[in-house]
Fold these 3 entries.
Entry 1:
Amino acid sequence: MATEVLRLAAFTLDGSGGNPAGVVYDADELNTDQRLAIAADLGYSETAFLNRPTGRSQWPIRYYSPQAEVAFCGHATIAAAVSLAQRFGTGPMTLSASVGPIELQTRLQSDGAVVATLTSVPTRSRPAGTDELTAALSALHWTSADLDPAYPPHVAFAGVQHLILLTRSRATLAALDYDFGALSVVMAARGWTTVDLLWAESASVFHCRNPFPPGGVVEDPATGAAAAAFGGYLRQLNLVPVPSSITITQGADMGRPSRLVVNIPAGSGGIEVTGTAAPIDDPTPQIA
C-alpha cells in the first residue's frame, strides 16, 4: 500500500497562517530512516506518521522533525485529527503516541471547517534553576530585567519539556534575535523541546514565540505542546482561576499568525488545546 503524505497548516487564524505539518497515512512499514527522509523532504518542524487503526477511532501515531523523532507534537496532532475527521467523520478519537494516549474531540463549525481539541497527558512544572536560566537568557540575548516578575521562570511538561519565560514587554518579544547554536546546546543538555517565550496582554490573552533548535527550526509559528504545558504551568502556580480559558496568539512576528485556545480544567489532569487546520496549497499529495 502506498504511503500518502499530506500538507496542512494547524492553528490557522481565519483560514491563513498557522504551523505547517506533514500528515503521513499508512506509515506502518516505514523505518526510522524513511520517516526522517520524508520529514526532511517536507522541511516542516514536525510530521505526524499514522499507522493503520488498531480499533474504532484509535490510531497509532509518531512524530518526526527533520532531525529526530519527537515524543509529542501538538500542532501535528491537530493537523492529523482534522485530516482524520475529514476522511472518517467527526467525533472522539484516540491517537496512541509514545507518551501515551492522546484523546481528541473533533467537530464541524458553522462554516464547514473542522475544529479539533486535544487533551494532553497530565502536566507538571518546576522552577527553572539559576544556572539553566542564566544560560538560556544569555543565548536569547535577554537579561533578568526583561522578565515579568508576575510569572516565574519554569520548566513545564505536557508530553515534552519546555522552558517558560514571560517578558515585561511586547517589544522585547517582537525583537527576538537569539543565538541558535548556543540555545541548541543549552536545550540539548536539559532535554527541552522548545523555549516558550510569552508576553501577557491580559490575564487571558498571551502573545508567544517558540524557538525550536532541537528540530532544526529557528521558530515554530504555533506550538500546541507548549501551549498545553503553559496551561498546566498557569494552573499549578495559581496564576489563573480554574476552570478557565486563555487565548495564545503566535506566529505574527514571523508572518504566520496563529491562534490556540487553551482550556484549563481544575485538577491535575491534561490541558485542552483547540484549533483548526487547513490544507497547504499544493497541487497533489506526495506519494512516497
Entry 2:
Amino acid sequence: MKILRSVLAVISGYAIFAAGAFAFFRISGQAPHQPAPVSIMIASIAVGVLCALLGGYAAARLAGRRPLAHGIAVAVILELGALASLVSTLGHGAIWTQVSALVLMSPAAALGGWLRSR
C-alpha cells in the first residue's frame, strides 16, 4: 500500500506541474515550442518553476514518508519529459521551454520535496 501511495503522490505532483504549464500556454495563446517574446518566456518560466515547486512539495506531503525522495521523483519525471521533448524538437522549433525545465523547473520540484522535509 505504501508503494501505491508513493506512485499516486508522484503522479499527482507531476500533474500539478503539467496542469500549470498547460494552463499557462492555453491562456497566453503561446505555443510552447515556438519563439516567444521575452515577457512570455519569463512569465512561463516563473509559472513553471512555481508549479514544479508546488508539485514536488505536494508529492512529498501526499506520500507521507521520505519527502525529499518523492520531490526528487517528480523532478526525475520532469527531466525525462523535458529531455524527450528536447530531442524531438531539436531542429523543429524553439527549445527554451525544455532547457528551462531542465535547468530551473526540475530542481524546483526537488526543492519542494526538500522544503516539505524541513
Entry 3:
Amino acid sequence: MKSLSALLLSGSLLWGQASFGGYVKLYDYTNPHDRLHHRLGTRTQFRVEGDNGFSGYFAMFNAEQEAGNPDSAMDAFRLDPVEMYIDFHFDRAELRLGRQFIFWGAADWVNPTDVINPWDFLHLSSEVEDYRVPVLALNATYYWSQMSLQTVLIPAFTPTDLPLPAGVTLHTPDRSWRHLQGGVRLQS
C-alpha cells in the first residue's frame, strides 16, 4: 500500500501536471439511543489527480481527528487512503487498477444491483465514502455502439464492517487469491 501511495503521489512527474483539492469538515453524528456510538470530530480530505489523455491517476486520503466516546479520555487520529487508482484510456475501452468505489445501478442508497463494495455499518452518514468500503480491483469497461460491457475482478475478500456485540466474532474468508471475486455488467 505504501509503494502504491508513493507512486500515485509522485504521479505528477509522470503525467506532467496534477490537480489538487480537498475539504475540511466538522461532523457530529448523534445516536440518542446509544451514546457510545456518538461521533464528534473533524475530517480533512486531500485529493490529487492527473491525466494525460492515455492514462491518469487519482488518490484521495482522509485525515480524521475524532473526539471518541464520552467514556474515553483518548482522542482517535486516523490517516486513511480512501481511493487510489491508475486509469488507462483506449479508443473503445477503459481500465482502472487500484483501490476504488464501484457503483452499479442508478438508485440512491438501497440499490439491489450495487453489490461490489461492502458496507460500513460502523460509520453510516450521508457521504458515500463514510458508508462504503473501497476495494482493490481491476475494473475494465469496453464500449461499442450504445452499449458497454464492464468486468470487475477483486483479488481478495473484503467483509462488511458490522457493529458486533462484545465477544462476538464473524468467520469470514481469508484475504487470499483463493477467494477471487468478480462481476460482469452489460449496460445499454
